[in-house]
Amino acid sequence: MDFDILLKLSVSLLLGGAIGLEREFHEKPAGLRTNIIICIGATIFTIVSLLVGKKYGQDPGRISAQIVTGVGFLGAGAIMREGSKISGLTTAAGIWLISAIGMAVGYGYYPLAFGATALVLLAQISLVELERFFRKFARFQTINARCGADWPSVQRVYDRVTGADVRIITRRVRKTNSIFTVELMVFGSSANIEEALTRLMDMQEVIDVDY
Fold first, then answer.
1. CB-CB contact of 182 with 155 (8 Å)
2. DSSP state, 79?
3. What is the Cα gyration radius of the chain?
4. In degrees to the nearest 10, what's the CA dihedral of 105, 110, 114, 117?
5. Full set of structural domains in the chain with CATH
6. Per residue in 133-166, is it b (16+ CB within 10 Å) or e — as a string?
7. pTM of the predicted protein model
8. With 0-12 CB in 10 A as exposed, 13-18 as middle and 19+ as buried, what is 196?
9. Which of 81-95, 101-115, 148-162 has the highest mean pLDDT?
10. For the residues of 111-138, what is the DSSP string, one character each?
11. Which residues, 6 or more positions from 17, have their beta carbon under 8 angstroms from its beta carbon?
12. Distance CA 93, CA 156 (A)
């Protein structure tokens, strides 16, 4: 095997493993093995694209350009929606980014690949703590409360939430089998949101609260 190809695959393994290890530590769906496989795969496709382009005189980006499309399908499969809650966006973005790093390695842009990996790890590790810090002061929260069939019950749900100094950003109400489901996107401090949840749970007409 050509030394240059072996070097690229080794670097791809190293960088994909570094990001994957951080994802594995935080118990994310796309962990160590997934990130390594995607990174090496993107590198191989890029290498093949360059080799085919050189041998047959074709566009060297013809094959590697399809990596973006293919990885898009992987990322879409990682995004899950349950009601108004959406999860997996960071995982999907990570899959997309690790393929870009693999392509950079395949083209031989090692400083770009190492720099991007370092920035991603810095963001993933440091910003998590920063997010936790700011969430103590203010955050968005989705609240779903099921309550009785009379409309005043819905209005009392609104009153309980706003009474805790929590701002209602969006609201949606559904009625199923004589039960109203009130779906709220709220914004406020963690303490106030917790107080709003406690107020809702203490309401006699509220059946259950999901958040």
1. no
2. -
3. 24
4. -30
5. 3-134 (no CATH), 139-210 (3.30.70.260)
6. eeeeeeeebbbbbbbbeeeebbebbeebbeebeb
7. 0.64
8. buried
9. 101-115
10. HHHHHHHHHHHHHHHHHHHHHHHHHTT-
11. 32, 35, 36
12. 40
Please give the full DSSP string across 179-201, using - where no structure is assigned. Answer: EEEEEEEEEE-HHHHHHHHHHHH
Which residue do the tokens 């496709």 mark? 45
| CA–CA dist 161, 165 (Å, integer) | 7
Q: Is 1 helix (H, G, I), strand (E, B) or coil?
A: coil
Burial of residue 190 (CB within 10 Å: 0-12, 13-18, 19+) is middle
AA letter at 25: F
The residue ranking higher by pLDDT, 133 or 6, is 6
Residue 199 corresponds to which tokens in the numbers above?
């107020």
Please count the other Cβ atoms lying within 10 Å of the Cβ belonging to residue 24. 16
Residue 22: both structure tokens together: 């951080």
